[in-house]
What does this fold into?
Amino acid sequence: MKDTTKALVLGKIAVGEKGHILRLWTRKYGPQAYIIHSIRSNKNGIRPAVLLPMTFINATVHHSNNGGLEKIKEVDVAKIWHRLTTNHIRQTLCLFSAEILQKTLQNGDASFAFFDDFMVMLERWDTSNVNLAMSANEMLLLVWKHLGFNIDSRDYGDGYVLDLREGVFVSNPPTNSDCISPETSKELVDWFRDRNKLVSKIARLEITDGLVLGLKWHYPSLGKINSLEILRAITF
It folds into this structure.
């Protein structure tokens, strides 16, 4: 079956001398892996620049449903990012986002709402005057939400902490100690209520580490997030 779908590039792995396995998050079919036989700079192949993490593409694909890798026939850019591909902070956010998505999305699971919400977020990141300080946490919270663990700030009370295993605010720290501190939980709730609210760098890092830890409880195979250290090294 030949079809065209919008997709975000998550990554690629070299196979042989010229081939690659291309990992895409497609709007129609969810995450999918496709085999491409060559990447070239001329018109006879798929250009390398098209395959950067979070590139938004139109992909013409062939699904044979025989259990093997599917084939991708044609790729073109659906939207040109003006800053996501040229700014080092935004590039790191794209790399981090792609790694998180690759390790949490399940093969074949398609959610138009999740994909569309993610695109709205990327479009905002691509604007010139956006505050990127909480962007990594915004992305992680969006992943939490669409995987069924939406955090509701209405459950918060003075002195509460965010329980990272359950994804809820609780009045007493859980015995497992997997929670965000009361001070940082308050900063997170303040940001929920006013997205222009400044969150301290210490709190931002604690939130990031906490949200990743929470994902690991639900996805034990998540493993090490290699791009996290690069993200932590960047001063927002």
Remarks:
- The helical segments are 88-104, 112-125, 135-146, 182-193, 201-218, 226-233.
- Strands lie at 2-15, 19-26, 30-36, 56-62, 70-79, 161-163, 168-170, 179-180.
